[in-house]
């Protein structure tokens, strides 16, 4: 660093700030454009994957329905001339079975993934999961209560058909558990997120124990029905039930996208978000309400499907980063496709039986998550 | 600009702040010093609105804190936290851009980008723009956070003034004329020099000083080092045990009796050889 004997020192030579030379200067507009391009490519790819998954889900099964036939059936349903000579069996299968099931998978996948992403933002923890606020186990417990003890309910309640009572009870149970968790964590208009997390863990444990007790008490039939809840399945959905639950999943998932900016700010901490000008308490309330509705409705129809809400947001972050403005819609699309693919596998892998989809998602999701953990540690992020 | 009256915060019957009143003026740097546990951070939280006092009131520009719309307040008052945990892989540049949140709908995206970059360069962190925040060192994070809060209250003038301001901040040259103040603004810094090396401690304080002089920002900084405070601040506020122990100009506070009483430490005061500011030395 000695300058002795150096008659003229170039002005910019000793500074180490790269901002000095125009060529090296970081161009924010270009970086943002690159980032936007990347997001667009990822969104397009995820969209294409979703289209493929839908075709796969509509087409694969005991009765094959190629895309052309599916289109033809759709056309004839709309009063247009049929495009191919599709069979009436194909039509019945597509309309009564595959279509509602495909729609259900998309809705549930999107609802779980968006709720997961929003929860991770709310808890400022990439390990958070929609189940943390107790909604899944609460719903499972309520469903188990109806399944196991339904036969002995008083006041003629036992007469209510189980396929109506169980989803309703599950939905109510999920909301009730979340409400309890939320009440415990709130005081004087403020909600302590850390307390909510711990209360959720405690309530999950209690509900899990109660479910275990109910399993212990149940007969063979109840045990089989319970399996549906604890392992998840998209089977047996009808248009009626879908129509009832669809708004409960779709509307919260869409509404959550409006929380993208405050959720971004929340990642920096509640105080920082408030100082940046966001209404933190309102954001927290909305995230919990929307997630409880979306997850409650999806658990009511399909039982507990694990790992989708945890893993999908991570996959999206890997591709396009943590900005919720892109993350939330992309997670919805990817969640929808992945659950469709999982469902296709679940109903074709062990024909003629059907694998509970929750087993499949946990089987794939668990190891994948471990890989993610190790990769992140390798990058020094944790 | 900001006036606080009789702020009292009690927790489990113990007064953490007890009847603290103070005023912050525009274009002034005020240093808040005091021993550990004196209530400095608590006071900053109350002044920033993050914590509601049990008694007393904070007004900014004459209006009580609670009467401000959040976004309006955020455009004239920025708060730099002691430390910011962030486990999501935002890039430093995106972190700074977050400071523009309250300007959504009022400021163009291009302008936000320009401000964010200028703010990063103002804290000597332009080269960190594309780095992933959780992988930065503590000192680098602190500088990125400072850039974020500067971007939040960046002067709303024409773009050439902006780049000029950035250049001035970076090179720290003396100016011959002050820019007109578009509005009054306030910068609250909670132990901003934590984790910073010597160079960047002084650079940060120079930046704060510059923003007070050049842009008329009222700065309050919680500092541990009275000597550092004395070099850059106009006024010093001393907290001890939740009470306002003393407040006044640097020369009034940096005296052996005041420092000795508050910190329970015998000191002598000398003048800085070139800058004239009082500096204390333990005896």
Automatic annotation (TrEMBL), chain A:
A GO CC term attached to the entry: plasma membrane
Segments passing through the bilayer: 41-65, 103-123, 135-158, 164-182, 194-217, 286-315, 327-349, 355-374
Coiled-coil region: none
Statement: the UniProt record of this protein carries the keyword Transmembrane: yes
Pfam families: FecCD (PF01032)
Membrane topology (UniProt): Multi-pass membrane protein
UniProt subcellular location: Cell membrane
Gene Ontology BP terms: siderophore-iron import into cell
Matching InterPro entries: ABC_BtuC-like (IPR037294), ABC_transptr_permease_BtuC (IPR000522)
Disordered: annotated segments: 1-25
Keyword Transferase: no
UniProt keywords, alphabetically: Cell membrane, Membrane, Transmembrane, Transmembrane helix, Transport
Top-rank taxon, per record: Bacteria
One function term, GO molecular function aspect: transmembrane transporter activity
Location, primary (coarse class): membrane
Family that this chain belongs to: Belongs to the binding-protein-dependent transport system permease family. FecCD subfamily.
Protein name as annotated: Iron complex transport system permease protein
Organism: Rhodothalassium salexigens DSM 2132
UniProtKB/TrEMBL annotation, chain B:
Span of domain ABC transporter: 2-266
Stretches the record annotates as Disordered: 158-178
UniProt entry tagged with the keyword Amino-acid biosynthesis: no
MF-aspect GO terms: ATP binding; ATP hydrolysis activity
Keywords: ATP-binding, Nucleotide-binding, Translocase, Transport
Tree of life domain: Bacteria
PROSITE patterns: ABC_TRANSPORTER_1 (PS00211), ABC_TRANSPORTER_2 (PS50893)
Pfam families: ABC_tran (PF00005)
InterPro entries (UniProt xref): AAA+_ATPase, ABC_transporter-like_ATP-bd, ABC_transporter-like_CS, P-loop_NTPase
PANTHER family linked to this entry: HEMIN IMPORT ATP-BINDING PROTEIN HMUV
Reported function: Part of the ABC transporter complex HmuTUV involved in hemin import. Responsible for energy coupling to the transport system.
Protein name (database record): Iron complex transport system ATP-binding protein
Gene source species: Rhodothalassium salexigens DSM 2132
